[in-house]
């Protein structure tokens, strides 16, 4: 019996989570696994009402779960930064979900904006470090509010933090067993402390993986290759900030935010799966948002629980729908409502 914590969150989060849970139930029936869910109401709405974010007692409770399923957190009425730090980053950090795994996979060539690229050309995974770097929140103001103000924002990289991320990426690349190529995406030519550590550690760990071909690309060049030659990539490993940026571009070349899912992974603890697109407030309650990213997140969650066959089956059902039914992957243009898309996936799953 799996225990799954569900955080529907804000905006369209609850709508897409609802479809994801329908698919989870169908997969449970088909593959014979049992689970129970509990809903946690962390959200901008709750914050506005009660001032509450994620607390230590919440973290302690969540540690008892096998996985967390998150819709989206974000509310235009809350000042930027509060929910991000108080909910999403709080969960990632407190649960030490040190990997952010973001597959970039094109399911149907109609949906990439890149001319002449086929599904076989856009199929890679970004392993984003998820616990350090610029996200650590270290820094200070000096002479705040004066003409001589200085704002310092530190990128914090520990050998242990970098190494565990790199090891995960090498292992993931080996297990994925596609092209067995791991690209380090950094900025060794300018950020000479952080990327020196990353590069040295990468080269050292690489010695233990003679079966993996290694490569390096600067982050600016990486964005160029995503558009020009995405087929060069298999697995990419990078830091928190660069990973954040390149995976939005990754989402666009795979068909947009409607299809992009990710996992915040603690390989020894509780992991959290989410569509990466945000709360899309303007589409809230209209039954027009694309739930496929949230459904793909369910697929990743199942794989992470060890229900590999079920996870694969969810992904295959999504691929089928995307290539045979969907007119577009964008909200309001799919040719179906949010709940109809969920139903189509379930039909296909059966
Ligand atoms: C993401 C988001 C978050 C991030 C924000 C909402 C804090 O953009 O998951 O990529 O920067 O990591
Ligand atoms: Mn982001």
Notes on the protein architecture:
Helix content is 41%, strand content 22%. The strands form two sheets. Strands 2-1-3-12-11-4-5-10-8-9 form a ten-stranded mixed beta sheet, sandwiched between helices. The mean pLDDT is 97. It is α/β, with parallel strands linked by helices and 350 residues long. It contains eleven helices and twelve strands. The radius of gyration is 20 Å and the shape is globular. α1 packs across α9 and α1 runs parallel beside α11. The chain has helices at residues 13-31, 44-50, 56-62, 82-94, 159-176, 194-206, 219-228, 240-253, 292-305, 308-324, 338-349, and strands at residues 2-9, 35-39, 67-72, 99-105, 123-129, 133-142, 150-156, 181-186, 213-218, 235-238, 261-265, 271-275. The structure holds 3-isopropylmalic acid (IPM) and manganese (II) ion.
């Amino acid at each position: 019996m799996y225990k799954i914590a569900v955080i529907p969150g804000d905006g369209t989060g609850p709508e897409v989570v609802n479809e994801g849970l329908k698919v989870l139930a169908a997969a449970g029936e088909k593959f014979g696994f049992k689970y129970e869910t509990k809903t946690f109401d962390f959200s901008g709405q709750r914050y506005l009402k009660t001032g509450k974010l994620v607390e230590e007692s919440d973290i302690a409770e969540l540690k008892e779960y096998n996985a967390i399923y998150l819709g989206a957190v974000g509310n235009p009425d809350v000042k930027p930064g509060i929910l991000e730090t108080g909910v999403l980053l709080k969960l990632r950090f407190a649960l030490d979900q040190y990997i952010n795994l973001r597959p970039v996979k094109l399911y149907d060539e109609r949906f990439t904006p890149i001319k002449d690229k086929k599904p076989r050309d856009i199929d890679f995974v970004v392993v984003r470090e998820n616990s350090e770097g610029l996200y650590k929140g270290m820094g200070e103001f000096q002479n705040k509010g004066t003409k001589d103000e200085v704002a310092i924002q530190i990128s914090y990289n520990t050998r242990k933090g970098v190494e565990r991320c790199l090891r995960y990426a090498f292992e993931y690349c080996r297990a994925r067993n596609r092209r067995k190529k791991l690209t380090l995406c950094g900025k060794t030519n300018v950020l000479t402390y952080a990327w020196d550590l990353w590069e040295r550690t990468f080269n050292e760990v690489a010695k233990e993986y003679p079966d993996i071909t290694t490569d390096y690309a600067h982050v600016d060049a990486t964005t160029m290759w995503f558009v020009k030659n995405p087929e060069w990539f298999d697995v990419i490993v990078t830091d928190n900030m660069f990973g954040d940026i390149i995976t939005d571009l990754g989402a666009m070349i795979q068909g947009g935010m409607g299809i992009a899912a990710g996992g915040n992974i603690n390989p020894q603890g509780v992991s959290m799966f989410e569509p990466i697109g945000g709360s899309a407030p303007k589409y809230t309650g209209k039954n027009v948002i694309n739930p496929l990213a949230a459904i793909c997140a369910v697929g990743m969650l199942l794989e992470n629980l060890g229900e590999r066959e079920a996870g694969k089956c969810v992904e295959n059902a999504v691929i089928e729908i995307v290539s045979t039914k969907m007119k577009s992957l964008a909200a309001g243009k799919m040719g179906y409502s949010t709940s109809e898309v969920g139903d189509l996936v379930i039909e296909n799953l059966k």
